[in-house]
Specification:
mainly alpha
Length: about 270
């Protein structure tokens, strides 16, 4: 266990607690406090990742510990930026605990020794990894917005103005915010796949090798492409869009973790998990 990670985890956990306070008390001071705590955690997190990068001379994603730690950082950064772009302040009640959970998981996963690979220090792989993680973070937030949409929709249909009904925003705001997250996430994911193709050509001599990670990345991309297409052409909104955002996130989660854990491929050669 790397105890230098504890201040970051503490900030994220404290931010999650503050967001819970905002959910129950509905006082803006809790919201501001939560945002400040997550920001503090992100700043420390960035410093630790920067030191790891310069020490190893490569992207710190060689094993599951490093990958989870990097994923938590990307999600925190994207959340802090998109929080300002959207009016969905309540999103922190899901985002902050998710960030804290990923960071805590990284703390408990052993940091297995792995020599820095040159394949993780080239320009295209650095761009590929950064953009992919940012895109996945955006799509994780879209999933969170989808979950909140389904909760609020159920409250409205039941005609019982319970706890969440009074605390969650309108369905229209949840839907439009989730759509914005998907557009940003899909765009960055597309850029990430393109840079991945360029990198694959340079390393393996082919743009596409039917590697399991490539296949599942393609499946995930198609799910979100279908969602955006149907929204523009057939007017998919509301519940359908929310459900598709959740399905897309499940596919993305399997691409992120499941492929490396259960399937063999080229990507496993460059990580130790």
């Amino acid at each position: 266990m790397n105890h230098t990670l504890l201040p970051v985890i503490f900030c994220y956990l404290a931010g999650s607690a503050a967001y819970a306070g905002y959910l129950f008390r509905q006082r803006n001071i809790y919201n501001k406090m939560a945002y400040a705590l997550v920001t503090a955690g992100f700043v420390i997190h960035t410093a630790l990742l920067a030191m790891a990068f310069f020490r190893a001379g490569a992207m710190p994603v060689h094993n599951l510990h490093e990958t989870l730690w990097f994923a938590a950082w990307a999600l925190a950064g994207v959340f802090l930026v998109l929080w300002w772009r959207s009016r969905l302040k309540i999103l922190g009640i899901i985002a902050a605990p998710l960030i804290a959970a990923i960071a805590a998981a990284a703390f408990f996963v052993p940091d297995t020794a792995a020599g820095a690979e040159t394949s993780l220090s080239g320009f295209w792989i650095v761009v590929h990894v950064m953009v992919i993680f940012i895109g996945e973070a955006c799509l994780a937030l879209a999933c969170a917005a989808g979950v909140l949409y389904l909760i609020q929709e159920r409250n409205i249909k039941s005609k019982k103005h319970k706890f969440f009904f009074r605390r969650l925003p309108s369905l229209e705001l949840l839907d439009s915010t989730g759509y914005q997250f998907i557009v940003i996430g899909f765009t960055t994911l597309t850029i990430g796949l393109i840079t991945g193709f360029i990198y694959a050509k340079a390393v393996w001599g082919h743009f596409w090798t039917w590697d399991p990670k490539e296949v599942w990345s393609g499946i995930t991309w198609l799910i979100y492409a279908a969602l955006l297409h149907e929204r523009l052409v057939a007017g998919w909104r509301g519940r359908r869009a929310a459900v598709m955002a959740i399905i897309g996130f499940a596919a993305m989660l399997f691409t992120f973790l499941g492929v490396n854990l259960f399937l063999e491929g080229h990507h496993n050669e460059f990580t130790r998990w």
